[in-house]
Amino acid sequence: MAKGYIINNWTEDQGLGVQLSYPEDLVVDLDDMMRIFYAHITGAGEAGNVLVRLEKARSNVSSYFTGMESENQFMINFIMELGEDPEIFGEAVLSEINKNILFYLKRINQNPASRLDITIELTDYIKNSLMYLERLKNLTKEQVMAQIYYSEKGRMILEILQEKPHTKKELHSLLEEKTGKFIPNIDTLLSHFVKTDLVRQDWIEGDSDISLFLLSDFIITRSPVSKLLEDAKKGLPNPYLASKYLELATGYFSHYKPSEVDNLKIASHMINPDLFDYIILFRERAYPINKVPRGPGQIFDQIRSFLATLESDKIITVLKNESDLEWIFLLTDITAQKFYPEYLIENIRKAVSENTLKKEPAIRHLELLEQIYKK
Predict the structure, then answer these.
(1) 69 in helix, strand or coil?
(2) What is the pLDDT of residue 205?
(3) CA 145 to CA 76: how far, in whole Å?
(4) Measured between alpha carbons, how far is 27 from 13 in angstroms, rounded to an integer?
(5) I need a labelling partner for 290 at 20 to 30 A (CA). Which of 71, 252, 349, 365 fits?
(6) Which long-range contacts (CB under 8 A, 24 or more apart) does 33-38 make?
(7) How many Cα atoms within 13 Å fall on the side-chain side of residue 50?
């Protein structure tokens, strides 16, 4: 499991100091912290991420540095177990956490008199973020597909394999070329594709490297909520609310057009376990606001916050009944839907005719696609 966060600050007169550690007993000695810092400042010392393996602390560290030219130089270190890779959690998720941590750090600098209170808020945020990151290890297959889509590297891997099969080395090289970044562990990225049965790894006789075959594709999309629409047509939960819901849902989908921006928004909610739990709950029925089930230890303000996020992105809608009581309806379901990649048959034929794909992997890919089609 993830060990925690250590936040360092750098000043010319005092050097590298520790701003905050969570948990408090998490310690990485100065020599190792300087190793991380030097990994950042080698070259231009620009803002960015590095991944460092610390043998002494038996940890992998995903570290973000604000850069030597920033007003305040902070280094945010996500400390993991030695065998863990940040790609398990997704680069976009870790970047969002870093952005929020920097927001708290900026507030501390701007309000020194409130330093203690803001630090307590920051500590609570990091605590909740670590719990969230742990839950990301146990996503459903549908959520893992959303995680693939939400990741720039995941979308690039999908695009590469939509063209034709590749060996693992070829894919690794193409991905580094497209991203312009060093990718230390391609296997972690590919594990998401294997777990969701999108990709099959197989050996081709005579090849020295494993080949990767895309067997299923998927789309991220919004769709009408079938159960709620059926209920509304029956006048449930009551005729007044049913009429309002049918009008809203029909109006929304008469103008809905999928886009990458909207799909990324959907994917971000799908991989958030707290938000997605509520989406699953609201698929089955509408709830009056005072009857929405709470998770262990949840307070009503937390639920309000989750609901506000979903409402602003048109995933739920809040309707008032005749007595002005608010009811929560799922306006749009959000899903990752698999489909058979028929387009690959033509892509494989074209790649063979243009001599960019050997006959053996082409035949093997077609055999695997035939097996999937029959199923």
Answers:
(1) coil
(2) 83
(3) 28
(4) 23
(5) 252
(6) 33/6, 33/8, 33/75, 33/77, 36/61, 36/63, 36/75, 36/77, 37/8, 37/10, 37/65, 37/75
(7) 20
Q: What pLDDT was estimated at residue 251?
A: 96
CB-based contact 310:316 (threshold 8 Å)? yes
Residue 293 structural domain: 219-337
Are 225 and 328 members of one domain?
yes
| Cα dihedral value 200, 204, 209, 211, nearest 10 | -30
Total Cβ atoms within 10 A of residue 7: 21
318 Cβ partners below 8 Å, 6+ apart? 289, 307, 311, 326, 327, 328, 329
What tokens appear for 4 in the block? 């925690």
Q: Identify the segments of the chain with pLDDT beneath 50.
A: none
Beta strand 211-214 pairing with 217-223: unpaired
- Could you say which of 138, 155, 172 is where a domain stops? 138
Residue in this structure with the two tokens 């050996």, named with its chain if needed: 203
Handedness of CA 336, 342, 346, 351 (dihedral sign): positive
Q: Label each residue of 181-192 as H, E or C.
A: CCCCCHHHHHHH
Q: What is the reported pLDDT for 88?
A: 87
Q: Is residue 350 domain-shared with residue 321, that is, in the same domain?
A: no
Give residue 356's identity as a one-letter amino acid code: T
Query: Which residues have CB under 8 Å from 372's CB, separation 6+?
Result: 215, 216, 340
Q: How far is CA 151 from CA 155, 200, 262, in A?
A: 6, 20, 14
In this predicted structure, what is the pLDDT of residue 297?
67
CATH number of the CATH domain containing 356: 1.10.10
CATH of the domain at 47: 3.30.450
Distance (Å, whole) CA 309 – CA 302: 11
Domain tally for the chain? 3
Q: For residue 29, how many other CB atoms are within 10 A of its CB? A: 10
User: Looking at this protein, which amino acid is placed at residue 64?
Assistant: Y
Taking the C-alpha atoms of residue 284 and residue 333, their distance in angstroms, rounded to an integer, is 11
* Coil, strand or helix at 157: helix
Q: Are residues 165 and 255 part of one domain?
A: no
Grouping H, G, I as helix, E, B as strand and the rest as coil, residue 133 is helix
Q: So what's the pLDDT on residue 90? A: 85
The rounded distance, in Å, linking the Cα atoms of 193 and 86 is: 16
